[in-house]
Amino acid sequence: MEFWSAKAKALSPYTPGEQPRIEGLVKLNTNESPLPPSPRALKAMREAANDSLRLYPAPESDALRETLAAYHGLRPENVFVGNGSDEVLAHAFLALLKHEKPLLFPDVTYSFYPVWAQLYDIAYETVPLDENMCVRIDDYRRNRAGAIVLANPNAPTGVAISRGDIARMLEQHADIPVVVDEAYVDFGGETAIPLISDNPNLIVVRTFSKSRALAGLRVGYALGQSRLIEALSRVKNSFNSYPLNRIAVAGAVAAVEDEAYFQHSLKQIVTERANATARLSELGFDILPSSANFIFARHKTAKGAELARALRERAVLVRHFNAPRIEDFLRITIGAAEQTAKLVTALDAILN
Ligand SMILES: *Cc1c(COP(=O)(O)O)cnc(C)c1O
Question: Which pTM does this prediction carry?
């Protein structure tokens, strides 16, 4: 402590879901994909492990920005890429969300948002979700709002709002930046990307970690009008010129090009989500309507913390948040069918 800056002393960092090395663990705590990444992406990465690694990568990751622009019907100047969407979001907090008036986000949402706000000394206020744990966009019409960040679908609830709602929010807040974190949108949400052309205040953030099964690669990106993207680049180029390595760019490009594999993977997760939801309902859980690759479930009688602990003893890991309004919920990643079966067997033993 004695050598720490006052800033380092004051931080309360984000705690990611644990990554223990336990044989046979059913790991449903960090929303990773149970499926392997695209075989084409793996092949491209093996091929990229060559002599060229002695050279720095392209600082703006042009190949990946061009591929993503074409995929989303935008131009490369509308795309910013980073080392995971956590890094992209961190840059957005400093580049776009720090203002004199407070940043707004839901009281129940991705728990990294208050951490970045603290890191960058950003004033913020939380806006309560409604009684159905849903974002109610009219509640964001406050006198003092400097910026807004929303995850859609929201985390850890999995609940999504419509593109129409996002459009209405952008209209109501045309004078401040709005960041929409679409980490889970591929699993059933409506993307805000078509709203970019008409809304100079919108940034959409995406990740390869969930729907593209590449959490280990660390690739995320932001889409928006070029003026906003430029602000992100200014922060990035004041922090790390080369956030994406050559292998990551090769893998990410090939993953985007493998659309058939991507669509097939999404179908499997969505099917298994329906199965897991049905099984857990039978066991007495109430489950929020999920548009994500996880479900947020509360048992009618058993306490969340106790269930999480009892599951861990049976080598099943789920995420439990000891936070107001959600302490009785478990956030359970959708795994493969055999993982759902093991989860259900364990819960059955615990509850009966
Ligand atoms: C997982 C997640 C991220 C971060 O993803 P990375 O790209 O792996 O850094 C961002 N936002 C939300 C809401 C997430 O759940």
Answer: 0.97
